[in-house]
């Protein structure tokens, strides 16, 4: 007979790993399904300074390694697969993956978000040839070169600071005057002499022959355009885009209540609009998308799933 899990956790970012830890410790029959590498988005950050107990040297990779180890210590089952389809109604729910179909009493959705594209001419052509969405992954390729960071949120500002360790000069291009980034990071960036600012501008085109050689920026106030060229000596430049997030919730459209951006709506117990289906981390509608809130959601979702099973005698 096919095994019915108590809980299936979709995604092994901080939210999923925290849910997995709590499920393991509670001795639930739990399965975590991850389509890529463990750790989700924190794998692309080199320094996590704002997670309690983390010190400046804590990278996303080292924090993830410890979280995964802790889950395994408590016996969590983990598979690498992509969830393609779900059936959420009823006492037994189905999770259909590329390689297997699983049955479960409860589901915790912890699928996180993806970064948004710049949406300018030439972007597709130069991804991996000068355009990057991950400073930790690609900063070293731009050692001694000028780098342009697009965005005005926490990721953009924190990664701009990080990039100054490699690039000769970092210029932040932001389409507004004000920033969404936290004040502490912004102050740190403003004090950094290697960070320059191009405000009220957006990148409309990226050009080059094989590698990025120039960018065209538009002043959003009057529509005037300027082309910024790499010097003859450099020959190229780096573009790092951190302009926003897209919730990875496509799978659940029409099945769960979501806001207009596609974030899943839940109550304070992480309960979604369908009984026995919980959500945790960045893919849920919330104020703050950080590791500290993702792990909190994950813990609450597992405890709520456990309670739901008890109460429904499921
Ligand atoms: C560059 C950068 C720097 C950051 N720096 C910090 C920082 O310093 N401090 C901080 O607190 N936060 C930081 N954050 C934010 C933090 O990374 C997120 O808040 C956190 O990772 C959210 O965790 P999550 O588990 O909700 O989602 P994610 O980390 O997005 O993980 C979701 C996981 O689900 C998997 N998944 C998605 N769909 C499926 C599917 N269909 N099947 C199977 N698996 C699936 C994904 O592969 C992924 O591994 C940063 C983010 C970025 C991008």
UniProtKB/TrEMBL annotation:
Its cofactor is FAD. GO terms for molecular function: thioredoxin-disulfide reductase (NADPH) activity. Transmembrane segments: none annotated. It is an enzyme of class 1 (oxidoreductase). Binds 1 FAD per subunit. The keyword Calcium does not apply. Keywords: Disulfide bond, FAD, Flavoprotein, NADP, Oxidoreductase, Redox-active center. This is Thioredoxin reductase. It comes from Filifactor alocis (strain ATCC 35896 / CCUG 47790 / D40 B5).
């Amino acid at each position: 007979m096919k095994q019915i899990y108590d809980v299936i956790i979709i995604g092994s970012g901080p939210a999923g790993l925290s849910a997995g830890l709590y499920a393991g410790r509670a001795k639930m029959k739990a399965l975590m399904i991850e389509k890529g590498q463990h750790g989700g988005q924190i794998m692309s950050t080199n320094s996590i300074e704002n997670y309690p107990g983390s010190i400046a040297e804590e990278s996303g990779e080292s924090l993830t390694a410890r979280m995964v180890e802790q889950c395994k210590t408590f016996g969590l089952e983990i598979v690498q697969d992509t969830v393609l389809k779900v059936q959420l109604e009823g006492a037994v729910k189905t999770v259909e993956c590329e390689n297997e179909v699983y049955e479960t009493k409860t589901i915790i959705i912890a699928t996180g978000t993806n970064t948004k594209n710049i949406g300018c001419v030439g972007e597709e052509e130069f991804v991996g040839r000068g355009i990057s969405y991950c400073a930790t992954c690609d900063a070293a390729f731009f050692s001694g070169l000028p780098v342009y960071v697009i965005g005005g949120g926490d990721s953009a500002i924190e990664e701009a600071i990080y990039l100054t360790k490699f690039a000769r000069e970092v210029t932040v291009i932001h389409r507004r005057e004000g920033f969404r980034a936290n004040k502490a990071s912004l102050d740190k960036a403003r004090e950094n002499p290697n960070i320059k600012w191009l405000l009220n501008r957006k990148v409309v085109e990226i050009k080059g022959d094989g590698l990025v050689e120039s960018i065209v920026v538009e002043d959003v106030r009057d529509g005037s355009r300027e082309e910024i060229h790499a010097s003859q000596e450099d020959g190229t430049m780096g573009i790092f885009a951190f302009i926003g997030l897209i919730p990875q919730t496509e799978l659940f459209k029409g099945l769960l209540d979501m806001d207009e951006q596609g974030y899943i709506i839940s109550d304070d117990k992480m309960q979604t609009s369908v009984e026995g289906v919980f959500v945790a981390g960045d893919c849920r509608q919330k104020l703050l998308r950080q590791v500290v809130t993702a792990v909190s959601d994950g813990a609450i979702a597992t405890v709520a799933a456990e309670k739901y099973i008890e109460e429904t005698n499921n």
